[in-house]
Amino acid sequence: MGHLKHRDLNATRERLRDQVSSALRAALISGELRPGVVYSAPTLAEDFGISATPVREAMLDLAREGLVEPVRNKGFRVTEFSERDLDQYTEIRALIEIPTVGRVTRTAACEDLEALRPVAEEIVRAARDHDLIGYLEADRRFHLALLALSGNERLVETVSDLRKRSRLYGLTALDERGELIPSAEEHVELLDLMLAGDARGAEACMAKHLGHVRSLWASEDGASKGERGDR
b vs e for 49-72, b when ≥16 Cβ sit within 10 Å of the residue's Cβ? Predict the structure, then answer.
């Protein structure tokens, strides 16, 4: 598991669990840890070069988020999501994020929006550089920071949880097909519309972006099952 090896986890005891959780979450999102597969804490700990205890604790954190489920005497199975699950998560995100983007466009200060440009550009750069972990981290920071401009902390928490549960599968395959770059560039497009004060345009762009992300899931799922074009 390439992304798990050689991670810098030389941290204090109290931070190690959180760092392992973040590393495992990144591996889950990127598809390095595969849905339906059972992973043991000792095996993962060997990849990290640490003891099994913080890995086991981190996996329990992920289990509470619904990302993995304990398997007695074996380890943890990565949760599998159905097409219906992904559709429902996308619908909830759309109900929250589309109108929120419109509201933020009308109320946020231009300097607060402009402060997000480096992150939007970082997303595009990571996609072009095939830096999948960097892409996902920058994408997370952009969306949550944008929603935070609404002033509603609970809204941000809800979307953060939905993003964890509706992670992109098989990101490597999407990257190899060049399908991440158009999605990445939509962040810059969205920001430009918001800075121009075009609330309706921003809402339409966010709707397009969420639809684009969902189509990537469907495309990857169909490819993995040999069903591309059947959806």
Answer: ebebebbbebbebbeeeebbeeee
